[in-house]
Amino acid sequence: MIGRDSIRMPSLRAAAPFRSALLCAALMAAALAAQSARAALHATEEFVSGKTRPVKIALLPVHVELQKQKMIRREAEVHEGGELEEYLANSVEHELSSRGYEVKRITSDIINADPKLQELVIDADRRYGELLTQVSVKLARQVAQRRYKAGDEMKLLAARLGVDAIAFTRMQMIAAGKGVQVLNFGMGGTQTMLSVSLIDGATADIEAYLTLPIMKRGQAFGGYEDIMKDPDHEMGRLAAAVFDEMPNADPSLRAARPAGGDVVKDVESLLGQ
Q1: What pTM does this model have?
Q2: Disulfide check for 258: which of 33, 214, 244, 262 has CB 3.0–4.6 Å away?
Q3: Mean of the pLDDT values across residues 117-139?
């Protein structure tokens, strides 16, 4: 048993997995530092100039994955993660609305009430999951080169919802136990990763990918206990940091785009071939 005031160190053989975990944690921290040093906003040139910057955005249900790191395993906290999703969605909606975007909040109730919409959302969510893996494995800055395309299903979803872009929000929080913190030399009580992607409804490209600027400005965010104690405040702080470099909506800069009906006809024609 691990006492409150003393820690019994494991044997060298038993400690090997922990040393590997420490190395992985260090590499992850270095990657996060390098990413945050570049920018919190990765976007296409047209998004920055305003030509493809959306006005109407559909905010799909956010996903929060909460895990508790034990000494030898991680345990998913599905219930607590689900409770945080509503607070995060409210904060993301607030950040977008405060910058002049027209946000169409798509809740689970809205999705479940429309079988066709439900099918489109499931397809889009699956495709975005695949795309997010590519962004994570490769470089987020390649968003500017339009390397990440979500596919025709995303165009159909945007057209059905009557929006210029679709927003996907993903958050992963790993809360370390006291024993794990000791093995990490007191570092990394809570690791938080948060990203928001805006996918263009006409091209299905990721136009903007926003990430949490960890270590970029010396900001300190609350850990697991702080978030659970006051989720509204802490989620608001996290969302504000993610959107710090997000430009305001400006319809006057937006270039003319295909009408929603035209997009649907074109996509359905392609899918029918």
Answers
A1: 0.75
A2: 262
A3: 88
